[in-house]
Amino acid sequence: MTTAGQRYLPLFDYLAGLCSLFGAFWLHFLLKGDVAVLRAFALSFRWLFVAPLLQVFLHALLGMYSGRSRSASFGFSRLVTSGVLTFFVFTASLFYLRVFFFPRLVILLWILVSFFCFFALRLPLFRKWQDERFFVLYRGERGRKLFEDLRKKNTSSGVVVGGTDIDTLREEELRKYLRRIVQDLNIDRVLLLLEPEERERAAILLREEGIDWGTREALAFFEEHRGQIKLTLADLLNYEQMVRDNSYLPLKYALDRVVAGILLVLLAPFFGLLALLIYLDSPGPVFYWQKRVGKDGRVFRLCKFRTMVPDAEKTTGAVLAQKNDPRVTRVGRILRRTRLDELPQLLNVLRGEMSLVGPRPERPEFVERWKKLIPYYEIRLLVKPGITGWAQVRGRYDEGPETVWEKLEYDLYYLRNLSLSLDFEILGRTLLVMLLGRGAR
């Protein structure tokens, strides 16, 4: 699919959803051989043209037509989320409107078939974007460090193939250099890692050389496509005001308690089974309570299933868990890999101390340590901590200073883009992390 085709992606999604719905009725007839489905098809004919609009609306709500949808993992997780939402919203709508002749199997087949159609539509775009080649213009030592950082983190958004410090070349030399580089390295996009005034001058120079296509401000581009915000650009006062004014937060916290209450009731038998396995594997308390720092620096007691031997820190004091930590029990290792040890934190959500989604809460000792080492670290305390978060579904497991810095960049992105659609994406990605056993903690 071309870039022009991308503009018509909502239309293609609508047509794919419509064809999938027709196909779902046909598959139902082939599988069941029941002519009653043909009567249901006739009765629900007008719904066939309305239903795909719900899918397009949800795709737009979930940001699937935005820049960050360039990532295949992003697209997959959002399509899964969209499919789940489509099923519940469409089924609830039929019940509310007392439409009882629409077969439930048709709805399931429709969502399944349309999922593969939507993903197939995006595959050419994913492949094209993954092969995009970027060249970066930067200035000075600070610019060089940021450029090296961007270059190390190549992802499905494309590849940074090179860059140059504009201070090392005179204007005429820079013009010749850019003409040669764009041709020799087959550059698709020039990214400008410069201050606003310098960025404008560089953009003018690129236009004069006929290479103004695809010119973007580098950090904004990588924020959009990699889901991180560089700490050097953070503004504590602006972030605080932005978060405090976010109208989604009251709804978010209300939904947290409702969902947590429902899940605690539904998962009660499962909790009992896990508690038995934990006790049989390593006698001792089933639950582990630990002090964590929450919203606005308030300390609370976080609840988890115990995954380590009793009194694991009796001799060592407060230390960060490591990959393949010898203190972790056999059952605990499985619980950690699948994130099931975090489920009791639904109690913390119900008590209003945590949210389903947000920056992960840290221990007071570590918060004090990171605040001294990392600027703006306290920004992550502007919202309630979460059972899962953007950093956890995007980051690594290890907990060194560099990784904590990187996680904070993810947290800053989450705070700036705080929304229901982003929370849905994180929950969808969390399910994948639980199934695949990957991601940060």
TrEMBL record:
Tagged with keyword Phosphoprotein: no
Membrane topology note: Multi-pass membrane protein
Subcellular location: Membrane
Similarity section: Belongs to the bacterial sugar transferase family.
Residue ranges occupied by any Bacterial sugar transferase domain in the UniProt entry: 252-435
Residue intervals passing through the bilayer: 12-31, 43-67, 79-101, 107-125, 258-280
Gene Ontology, cellular component aspect: membrane
The protein, known as: Sugar transferase
Primary subcellular site in the record, as a coarse category: membrane
